[in-house]
Amino acid sequence: MALLNVLAALALFTGGGAGIVALLSSADERDRGPLNAGWCFLAGSGVAALLLHAPLAIDGRLPKAAFFVVFSILLFLAAWPGQTYIRRGGAARFFGFDLVRGLPMWARIVALILLLLAVSVAFEPLAGWDERAIYGLKARILYHEGSVRVEAFTDKDIVHSQARYPLLIPLLEASLFAVKGSLDGVFLKLLFALFAVSLVMIVTDEASRLDGARAGALWGLLLLTTPFVIGPTEGRGISAYADLPFAAFATGAVVMLGRAFDRPGLSGTMSGLLLGAAIMTKQEGAIWALAIAFAFFLTRWLRASVRPLVLVRQATAVAIPALMFLVLSFAARRWIPPIWTERYGTFLNVEGIRRLGPRPLEIAPFVVREIASASHWSWGWVLVICGLAALRRPKLSEAPFLWRTTAAIVFVSYLCVFIVTPDQVYWHLQTAFARLLLQLFPLAVLILAEQVSASGWLRQGLAALKPSPRLGEPGS
Description:
- With about 475 residues, this protein is mostly helical.
- The protein has one domain (about 1-335).
- The chain is about 75% helix and about 0% strand.
- Mean pLDDT is about 90; it is low at about 470-475.
């Protein structure tokens, strides 16, 4: 029964997300076909967490009735606009079956095996440090105590690792505790398995717009076969860490913003919604928000002549939903005192800056080793770097320029964090750098996919794979 309840909750996140997308879409956007289930799950889970933040923002309390109200809203959205939206575009397209058909049979088998392994691992209980001591602990407190104004959050004598971390993941986990009626952590990792599947679906969907369904499916398979994306061990995608959900939200926000250059309606609002959800998931959301904002205005300035009124309208469509998430996130956490904070300002003086001099050379070998790590990334990052360096392409259009600028700013920002870290630098790199690369990797795959598409190399390769016509057939 507990498993069925968890599956029903995840289905409501997806169906409710479809209803949200339907309400945000114009008639013309609905006629062009629906966003797939991956996009809808991200929208539904993000809005569910936003609604659960509302009572916390008011007085720091979360009554159990709040979970019932949120699931009731999602059920209404799924049953009315959601099912109409799915039916209009077709279930096969919504669930991504049309993308799977683009794969050769051997690739379909590989994808199925990987998905089954990921789901089987998701039945295991929480085991890693962040799973239990950060996100899982907060989820249990929120469900059991119904508040952030309890000793576990507010008493500085109680050890609570990262008490002021954003609460999106703990709230989603708490909602699964609510439908199960217990604090048992079994089946909670199904939430993260669905985040992984959704991430693969949105990358496949966007890559398919470049070179068709088969190429898109192959890029999705590359992401799915990357050990750090689909792996279950501590810090990897199917472990209950927040980095893979964050990667899904952040990648979706950048992709939708790129689409908004041509079609600003749904794409702009969805970009803001997903960016807000990323901010509500991890502190790195602030870095991504600033990077996306800078990349957006730089792209508009360098790549297109846009009237100021149009630019303001496009920026507002993204900013309003993102700010809603930001405000509620801060309001919900204002009840939690700063129990422990890292002092990154330690080096903000002449002597401190002088001591930072050797840091870039110290971290460079570790960065290179991690990027080349086959056990973490297979050949993923190596393919990205070699592809961008070797393949020729025409001038960048707006969306690819936005992707690359955002990725470059975020990557450099992450390196700067390690340069100024007050922690022991190798310890910090060892515990965090691979997870930060996970946040960037899906966008890097899309950047490589666009580079390959623009070069024409993949189209030529796929054409060569098509069987030659038999003698006597047309074209022989």
